[in-house]
């Protein structure tokens, strides 16, 4: 059943969504979690495999220490309690790309529990709980290909089998698609700062499943849960949740019942479709993994890992606002990635005005990047270049108009600001008073009406004259000097 948006809007006030997210993050280790095979993405199918990750009889897993350290680091960054002892378990189920017939994961004794992320939606701060963070191995990948003269064919690539994962399970604290989007954005940002994963959704380094139900407002019991799987961007997750909220409300309002199932989202149509029924929880027959000892992360090891925990985004934003006098919005943009924040801080330490550097990123750099479809990490103008340009404007060496022209040239040539500034002969604003006075006299003589307006008390008309002088000087006049000379001449 598909509901109309009108029906959903009319009924939505009667219901509230309950959303929980399960996020799988591939850890950026060189080798797999239980063997020495490479985790490199993009290699030919079934080349990074061995008896361990193929699940051959007699092969024994050996835990990757770096995977544990990365998982603990992520848990600490997400405010989780790291358990000193955790247990690996076998999660038994059949799937073509699971060669052993079971997945080594963690169940009732996970690596970490009881974390939280703070999000802000429409100016309101909210705490989203994290139930657990546990280690597990990834499965392989099924590749579906259709051929002109045959039915669809499925092939298996087991290169991904055994790649280390952390699964981060949220509490059902999320109450809207916007909150889910913000939670995922903050989660990804924190993980990227720790350096434990590249979170590349296109390569499958970060994957998310959403569990969603609706219930009448003020009802304590949860509604029937629907799982939405295989959504490959945060934007699509938000769209899928919005659609599913409306769909479920429409079903209930029509007098029907929600059927527990797993659904897929079609981003082209903006709709979810039933994938398989899920009438009851799957019996995975968990039991402790007999080939792996309990994982002990004692206080000493935890302290060593905690010492490598970087300054996290929220704390960094607060410090940068205090240290550099920039706005919270500037800090939000400049901490988008750790690399960008590092570059800004390096530039801010040598720039005459860190605030001007931040302003130029906002006012001049971001718009050009957006127009070119570039991420800030691929900007032709480095943060060092922004700092130099800020200093030139701050000292009055170049005008705002000259800076804009130089930025345009940098983007046209794909070269950094310092190089373009050198190539253009290090242009400077004109401070030649006699030359400026000649231009001003010509402008005043050509605009008697505006002169009368100024002398009649309409002093804002001076802006017109400044603009005309700047145009006549091809942007090379010093605006402050122009303003001073104009006022002097207009008042005589």
Offer a few descriptive terms.
nine-stranded mixed β-sheet; 16 helices; three-stranded antiparallel β-sheet; alpha+beta; 492 residues; Arc Repressor Mutant, subunit A; elongated; 16 strands
Characterise this structure.
By secondary structure, this protein is an alpha+beta fold. It folds into three domains: 5-299, no CATH class; 313-423, no CATH class; 433-490, Arc Repressor Mutant, subunit A. Helix content is 39%, strand content 22%. The protein has helices spanning 5-12, 65-77, 177-194, 234-253, 299-306, 313-324, 328-334, 338-348, 354-372, 383-394, 400-413, 417-423, 433-446, 448-455, 462-472, 479-490; strands at residues 15-26, 81-82, 85-86, 88-92, 102-106, 112-121, 124-137, 141-147, 150-157, 164-170, 206-216, 226-231, 261-266, 271-277, 287-288, 295-296. It has a nine-stranded mixed sheet. A hairpin with a 2-residue loop joins strand 8 and strand 9 (150-157). Helix 13 packs across helix 15. It starts with a helix and ends with a helix. The model has no long low-confidence stretch (mean pLDDT 90).
Described by strand count, sense and barrel closure, the largest sheet is:
9 strands, mixed
Percentage beta strand:
15-25%
Count of DSSP E strands?
Answer: 16
Distance between the termini: 80 Å
